Protein backbone atom coordinates (compact mmCIF):
# COMPACT_ATOMS: atom_id res chain seq x y z
CA UNK A 1 0.00 0.00 0.00
CA UNK A 2 1.35 3.43 -0.95
CA UNK A 3 1.55 5.80 1.99
CA UNK A 4 -0.15 9.14 1.82
CA UNK A 5 2.16 12.12 1.37
CA UNK A 6 0.69 13.57 4.53
CA UNK A 7 1.35 10.52 6.71
CA UNK A 8 3.86 10.60 9.54
CA UNK A 9 4.10 11.74 13.13
CA UNK A 10 4.91 15.34 12.17
CA UNK A 11 2.45 15.61 9.29
CA UNK A 12 -0.26 18.28 9.20
CA UNK A 13 -3.84 17.27 9.93
CA UNK A 14 -5.60 17.44 6.56
CA UNK A 15 -9.01 17.43 8.23
CA UNK A 16 -8.28 20.96 9.50
CA UNK A 17 -7.58 24.17 7.55
CA UNK A 18 -3.90 24.31 6.67
CA UNK A 19 -1.55 27.06 7.72
CA UNK A 20 0.73 28.60 5.11
CA UNK A 21 3.69 26.52 6.25
CA UNK A 22 1.66 23.32 6.40
CA UNK A 23 0.26 23.87 2.91
CA UNK A 24 3.77 24.22 1.47
CA UNK A 25 4.92 21.24 3.54
CA UNK A 26 2.13 19.02 2.21
CA UNK A 27 2.85 20.15 -1.36
CA UNK A 28 6.51 19.20 -1.06
CA UNK A 29 5.63 15.87 0.59
CA UNK A 30 3.21 15.12 -2.23
CA UNK A 31 5.86 16.03 -4.80
CA UNK A 32 8.45 13.80 -3.17
CA UNK A 33 6.13 10.85 -2.60
CA UNK A 34 4.97 10.73 -6.24
CA UNK A 35 8.04 12.12 -7.96
CA UNK A 36 8.47 9.43 -10.63
CA UNK A 37 4.92 9.45 -12.11
CA UNK A 38 4.71 13.22 -11.78
CA UNK A 39 7.99 13.75 -13.63
CA UNK A 40 6.83 11.35 -16.34
CA UNK A 41 3.70 13.42 -16.91
CA UNK A 42 5.68 16.66 -16.74
CA UNK A 43 8.18 15.35 -19.29
CA UNK A 44 5.41 14.34 -21.69
CA UNK A 45 3.72 17.71 -21.24
CA UNK A 46 6.98 19.50 -21.98
CA UNK A 47 7.65 17.37 -25.07
CA UNK A 48 4.27 18.32 -26.50
CA UNK A 49 5.13 22.01 -25.98
CA UNK A 50 8.58 21.51 -27.47
CA UNK A 51 7.30 19.98 -30.70
CA UNK A 52 5.97 23.19 -32.32
CA UNK A 53 8.85 25.23 -30.87
CA UNK A 54 11.47 22.92 -32.37
CA UNK A 55 9.60 23.05 -35.67
CA UNK A 56 9.53 26.86 -35.56
CA UNK A 57 13.27 27.01 -34.86
CA UNK A 58 13.99 24.60 -37.71
CA UNK A 59 11.81 26.61 -40.10
CA UNK A 60 13.45 29.86 -38.97
CA UNK A 61 16.93 28.48 -39.62
CA UNK A 62 15.76 27.12 -43.00
CA UNK A 63 14.23 30.39 -44.15
CA UNK A 64 17.21 32.45 -43.01
CA UNK A 65 19.71 30.06 -44.60
CA UNK A 66 17.90 29.77 -47.93
CA UNK A 67 16.36 33.28 -48.03
CA UNK A 68 13.03 31.69 -49.04
CA UNK A 69 10.77 33.82 -46.87
CA UNK A 70 7.59 34.17 -48.90
CA UNK A 71 7.19 31.05 -51.02
CA UNK A 72 5.53 28.80 -48.43
CA UNK A 73 5.16 31.05 -45.36
CA UNK A 74 1.47 31.64 -46.02
CA UNK A 75 0.78 27.92 -45.68
CA UNK A 76 3.28 27.14 -42.94
CA UNK A 77 2.06 29.71 -40.40
CA UNK A 78 -1.61 28.55 -40.29
CA UNK A 79 -0.50 24.92 -40.10
CA UNK A 80 1.90 25.78 -37.28
CA UNK A 81 -0.85 27.59 -35.36
CA UNK A 82 -3.09 24.53 -35.60
CA UNK A 83 -0.24 22.30 -34.45
CA UNK A 84 0.52 24.67 -31.57
CA UNK A 85 -3.11 24.61 -30.43
CA UNK A 86 -3.27 20.81 -30.48
CA UNK A 87 0.08 20.38 -28.70
CA UNK A 88 -0.85 22.99 -26.09
CA UNK A 89 -4.16 21.27 -25.37
CA UNK A 90 -2.39 17.94 -24.92
CA UNK A 91 0.25 19.55 -22.68
CA UNK A 92 -2.41 21.19 -20.50
CA UNK A 93 -4.17 17.85 -20.09
CA UNK A 94 -0.96 16.15 -18.97
CA UNK A 95 -0.02 18.84 -16.45
CA UNK A 96 -3.59 18.94 -15.14
CA UNK A 97 -3.41 15.19 -14.57
CA UNK A 98 -0.65 15.86 -12.03
CA UNK A 99 -2.97 18.16 -10.07
CA UNK A 100 -5.76 15.57 -10.25
CA UNK A 101 -3.45 12.85 -8.95
CA UNK A 102 -2.35 15.13 -6.12
CA UNK A 103 -5.93 15.91 -5.15
CA UNK A 104 -6.75 12.20 -5.28
CA UNK A 105 -3.97 11.50 -2.79
CA UNK A 106 -5.15 14.28 -0.48
CA UNK A 107 -8.71 12.91 -0.46
CA UNK A 108 -7.42 9.36 0.17
CA UNK A 109 -8.81 8.19 -3.20
CA UNK A 110 -5.60 7.46 -5.16
CA UNK A 111 -5.84 6.93 -8.90
CA UNK A 112 -3.51 5.46 -11.48
CA UNK A 113 -1.75 7.79 -13.90
CA UNK A 114 -3.75 6.38 -16.83
CA UNK A 115 -7.07 6.94 -15.06
CA UNK A 116 -6.25 10.54 -14.19
CA UNK A 117 -4.93 11.32 -17.66
CA UNK A 118 -7.93 9.63 -19.27
CA UNK A 119 -10.16 12.11 -17.43
CA UNK A 120 -8.09 15.24 -18.22
CA UNK A 121 -7.39 14.27 -21.82
CA UNK A 122 -11.11 14.12 -22.46
CA UNK A 123 -11.18 17.81 -21.45
CA UNK A 124 -8.02 18.94 -23.20
CA UNK A 125 -9.79 21.53 -25.35
CA UNK A 126 -11.48 23.00 -22.30
CA UNK A 127 -8.06 23.50 -20.71
CA UNK A 128 -6.89 25.25 -23.86
CA UNK A 129 -9.96 27.51 -24.03
CA UNK A 130 -9.61 28.37 -20.33
CA UNK A 131 -5.98 29.37 -20.83
CA UNK A 132 -6.85 31.51 -23.86
CA UNK A 133 -9.67 33.21 -21.97
CA UNK A 134 -7.40 33.85 -19.01
CA UNK A 135 -4.72 35.28 -21.29
CA UNK A 136 -7.30 37.59 -22.89
CA UNK A 137 -8.58 38.72 -19.49
CA UNK A 138 -5.03 39.48 -18.41
CA UNK A 139 -4.46 41.63 -21.49
CA UNK A 140 -7.71 43.55 -20.94
CA UNK A 141 -6.93 44.18 -17.27
CA UNK A 142 -3.38 45.32 -18.08
CA UNK A 143 -4.47 47.62 -20.91
CA UNK A 144 -7.27 49.06 -18.80
CA UNK A 145 -4.90 49.79 -15.95
CA UNK A 146 -2.33 51.36 -18.28
CA UNK A 147 -5.01 53.62 -19.75
CA UNK A 148 -6.15 54.85 -16.33
CA UNK A 149 -2.55 55.18 -15.11
CA UNK A 150 -1.54 57.16 -18.21
CA UNK A 151 -4.38 59.61 -17.63
CA UNK A 152 -3.45 60.03 -13.95
CA UNK A 153 0.25 60.51 -14.70
CA UNK A 154 -0.52 62.99 -17.49
CA UNK A 155 -2.75 65.05 -15.19
CA UNK A 156 -0.15 65.09 -12.42
CA UNK A 157 2.60 65.90 -14.90
CA UNK A 158 0.62 68.82 -16.27
CA UNK A 159 -0.21 70.00 -12.73
CA UNK A 160 3.46 70.29 -11.73
CA UNK A 161 4.42 72.12 -14.91
CA UNK A 162 5.92 69.19 -16.74
CA UNK A 163 4.54 70.30 -20.10
CA UNK A 164 6.36 73.62 -19.88
CA UNK A 165 9.55 71.79 -18.89
CA UNK A 166 9.36 69.56 -21.97
CA UNK A 167 8.82 72.55 -24.26
CA UNK A 168 11.49 74.64 -22.57
CA UNK A 169 14.06 72.63 -20.55
CA UNK A 170 15.72 75.88 -19.40
CA UNK A 171 12.61 76.56 -17.32
CA UNK A 172 13.41 73.65 -14.97
CA UNK A 173 14.43 76.10 -12.27
CA UNK A 174 10.94 77.59 -12.35
CA UNK A 175 9.28 74.26 -11.54
CA UNK A 176 8.47 73.74 -7.87
CA UNK A 177 10.82 70.96 -6.60
CA UNK A 178 8.19 69.88 -4.11
CA UNK A 179 5.70 69.28 -6.91
CA UNK A 180 8.30 67.32 -8.86
CA UNK A 181 8.86 65.08 -5.84
CA UNK A 182 5.10 64.67 -5.53
CA UNK A 183 4.87 63.69 -9.20
CA UNK A 184 7.66 61.16 -8.75
CA UNK A 185 5.91 59.65 -5.72
CA UNK A 186 2.68 59.43 -7.68
CA UNK A 187 4.54 57.64 -10.46
CA UNK A 188 6.01 55.15 -8.00
CA UNK A 189 2.56 54.67 -6.51
CA UNK A 190 1.12 53.89 -9.93
CA UNK A 191 3.86 51.30 -10.57
CA UNK A 192 3.25 49.73 -7.17
CA UNK A 193 -0.49 49.66 -7.77
CA UNK A 194 0.07 47.99 -11.15
CA UNK A 195 2.13 45.25 -9.50
CA UNK A 196 -0.54 44.79 -6.83
CA UNK A 197 -3.40 44.62 -9.37
CA UNK A 198 -1.62 42.08 -11.56
CA UNK A 199 -0.64 39.98 -8.53
CA UNK A 200 -4.18 40.07 -7.15
CA UNK A 201 -5.60 39.17 -10.55
CA UNK A 202 -3.14 36.30 -10.99
CA UNK A 203 -3.97 34.82 -7.60
CA UNK A 204 -7.73 35.00 -8.15
CA UNK A 205 -7.21 32.91 -11.30
CA UNK A 206 -4.33 30.78 -10.01
CA UNK A 207 -6.07 27.37 -10.01
CA UNK A 208 -8.66 27.13 -12.83
CA UNK A 209 -7.17 23.90 -14.22
CA UNK A 210 -7.58 22.08 -10.91
CA UNK A 211 -11.39 22.23 -10.63
CA UNK A 212 -11.58 21.49 -14.36
CA UNK A 213 -9.44 18.40 -13.74
CA UNK A 214 -11.48 17.28 -10.72
CA UNK A 215 -15.10 18.42 -10.88
CA UNK A 216 -17.52 16.94 -13.43
CA UNK A 217 -19.47 19.01 -15.93
CA UNK A 218 -17.40 22.18 -15.76
CA UNK A 219 -16.86 24.27 -18.87
CA UNK A 220 -13.81 26.43 -19.50
CA UNK A 221 -15.58 29.61 -18.36
CA UNK A 222 -17.01 27.87 -15.30
CA UNK A 223 -13.53 26.74 -14.27
CA UNK A 224 -12.40 30.37 -14.24
CA UNK A 225 -15.43 31.27 -12.16
CA UNK A 226 -14.69 28.40 -9.80
CA UNK A 227 -11.15 29.70 -9.23
CA UNK A 228 -12.55 33.19 -8.61
CA UNK A 229 -15.08 31.82 -6.13
CA UNK A 230 -12.68 29.65 -4.15
CA UNK A 231 -9.92 32.24 -3.84
CA UNK A 232 -12.25 34.93 -2.49
CA UNK A 233 -10.92 36.36 0.81
CA UNK A 234 -7.85 34.10 0.59
CA UNK A 235 -5.60 36.15 -1.69
CA UNK A 236 -3.06 36.91 1.03
CA UNK A 237 -2.72 33.28 2.12
CA UNK A 238 -2.36 31.99 -1.42
CA UNK A 239 0.17 34.70 -2.25
CA UNK A 240 2.35 33.68 0.71
CA UNK A 241 2.07 29.98 -0.18
CA UNK A 242 3.15 30.66 -3.76
CA UNK A 243 5.88 33.05 -2.60
CA UNK A 244 7.41 30.49 -0.24
CA UNK A 245 7.28 27.87 -3.00
CA UNK A 246 8.93 30.25 -5.45
CA UNK A 247 11.71 31.00 -2.97
CA UNK A 248 12.31 27.26 -2.61
CA UNK A 249 12.82 26.99 -6.39
CA UNK A 250 15.43 29.78 -6.57
CA UNK A 251 18.39 27.34 -6.78
CA UNK A 252 16.87 25.73 -9.87
CA UNK A 253 16.24 29.16 -11.39
CA UNK A 254 19.90 30.01 -10.87
CA UNK A 255 20.88 26.79 -12.63
CA UNK A 256 18.61 27.68 -15.56
CA UNK A 257 20.19 31.12 -15.87
CA UNK A 258 23.68 29.59 -15.75
CA UNK A 259 22.85 27.09 -18.49
CA UNK A 260 21.26 29.82 -20.61
CA UNK A 261 24.40 31.94 -20.28
CA UNK A 262 26.62 29.04 -21.31
CA UNK A 263 24.39 28.27 -24.29
CA UNK A 264 24.49 31.89 -25.45
CA UNK A 265 28.29 31.94 -25.22
CA UNK A 266 28.48 28.70 -27.22
CA UNK A 267 26.26 30.13 -29.95
CA UNK A 268 28.34 33.32 -30.06
CA UNK A 269 31.42 31.26 -30.87
CA UNK A 270 29.89 30.13 -34.16
CA UNK A 271 27.69 33.08 -35.17
CA UNK A 272 28.28 36.84 -34.69
CA UNK A 273 25.68 38.72 -32.66
CA UNK A 274 24.66 40.65 -35.78
CA UNK A 275 23.73 37.42 -37.59
CA UNK A 276 19.99 36.60 -37.89
CA UNK A 277 20.84 33.00 -37.05
CA UNK A 278 22.33 34.15 -33.74
CA UNK A 279 19.02 35.70 -32.73
CA UNK A 280 16.99 32.67 -33.81
CA UNK A 281 19.28 30.18 -32.08
CA UNK A 282 19.60 32.28 -28.92
CA UNK A 283 15.85 32.73 -28.49
CA UNK A 284 15.16 29.13 -29.48
CA UNK A 285 17.75 27.66 -27.13
CA UNK A 286 16.43 29.81 -24.28
CA UNK A 287 12.94 28.37 -24.77
CA UNK A 288 14.24 24.83 -25.09
CA UNK A 289 16.47 24.95 -22.02
CA UNK A 290 13.86 26.70 -19.88
CA UNK A 291 11.21 24.16 -20.84
CA UNK A 292 13.45 21.13 -20.34
CA UNK A 293 14.65 22.24 -16.92
CA UNK A 294 11.10 23.29 -16.12
CA UNK A 295 10.15 19.61 -16.05
CA UNK A 296 11.34 19.43 -12.45
CA UNK A 297 9.41 22.34 -10.86
CA UNK A 298 6.22 21.72 -12.88
CA UNK A 299 5.01 18.79 -10.70
CA UNK A 300 5.82 20.83 -7.58
CA UNK A 301 3.67 23.74 -8.71
CA UNK A 302 0.83 21.41 -9.69
CA UNK A 303 1.11 19.69 -6.29
CA UNK A 304 0.95 23.06 -4.53
CA UNK A 305 -2.09 24.02 -6.60
CA UNK A 306 -3.78 20.74 -5.65
CA UNK A 307 -3.11 21.45 -1.98
CA UNK A 308 -4.41 25.03 -2.28
CA UNK A 309 -7.55 23.81 -4.06
CA UNK A 310 -8.10 21.08 -1.47
CA UNK A 311 -7.65 23.50 1.43
CA UNK A 312 -9.91 26.15 -0.11
CA UNK A 313 -12.67 23.63 -0.72
CA UNK A 314 -12.38 22.35 2.83
CA UNK A 315 -12.54 25.88 4.20
CA UNK A 316 -15.55 26.87 2.08
CA UNK A 317 -17.41 23.59 1.63
CA UNK A 318 -16.52 21.61 4.74
CA UNK A 319 -15.95 17.90 5.15
CA UNK A 320 -16.67 15.01 2.85
CA UNK A 321 -14.70 16.08 -0.22
CA UNK A 322 -14.82 13.43 -2.90
CA UNK A 323 -12.93 12.96 -6.11
CA UNK A 324 -15.53 13.37 -8.81
CA UNK A 325 -15.00 10.75 -11.48
CA UNK A 326 -18.27 9.81 -13.17
CA UNK A 327 -18.18 7.13 -15.87
CA UNK A 328 -16.86 8.59 -19.10
CA UNK A 329 -19.21 7.96 -21.97
CA UNK A 330 -19.29 8.81 -25.63
CA UNK A 331 -22.18 11.23 -25.26
CA UNK A 332 -20.02 13.64 -23.27
CA UNK A 333 -16.47 13.10 -24.50
CA UNK A 334 -16.54 11.12 -27.74
CA UNK A 335 -15.35 7.62 -28.35
CA UNK A 336 -11.89 8.68 -29.54
CA UNK A 337 -11.04 10.02 -26.11
CA UNK A 338 -11.97 6.75 -24.44
CA UNK A 339 -9.91 4.38 -26.51
CA UNK A 340 -6.39 5.60 -25.73
CA UNK A 341 -5.28 6.55 -22.24
CA UNK A 342 -1.54 6.35 -22.79
CA UNK A 343 -0.04 9.67 -21.62
CA UNK A 344 2.57 9.51 -24.33
CA UNK A 345 -0.06 9.48 -27.03
Give the tags:
single chain, 345 residues, mainly alpha
Give a short summary of the structure.
The chain contains 15 helices and no strands. The protein is mostly helical and 345 residues long. Helix 2 packs antiparallel against helix 3.
Largest sheet: none
Strand content: under 5%
Shape category: globular
Order of helices and strands: HHHHHHHHHHHHHHH
* Overall mean confidence score, pLDDT: 80
List the helices and strands and how they pair.
Layout: H1 20-33, H2 35-66, H3 73-106, H4 113-121, H5 124-159, H6 162-167, H7 177-204, H8 209-214, H9 220-230, H10 235-248, H11 250-270, H12 276-293, H13 297-317, H14 330-333, H15 336-339
Helix pairs in contact: 1-10, 1-13, 2-3, 2-12, 3-4, 3-5, 3-13, 5-7, 5-9, 11-12
Q: How would you describe what is shown here?
A:
The protein has 345 residues and is mainly α. It has one domain. 75% of the residues lie in helices and 0% in strands. The chain has 15 helices and no strands. It has helices spanning 20-33, 35-66, 73-106, 113-121, 124-159, 162-167, 177-204, 209-214, 220-230, 235-248, 250-270, 276-293, 297-317, 330-333, 336-339. Helix 1 (20-33) crosses helix 10 (235-248), helix 3 (73-106) packs across helix 4 and helix 5 (124-159) crosses helix 9. The longest helix has 36 residues, at 124-159. The radius of gyration is 24 Å and the shape is globular. The relative contact order is 0.15.
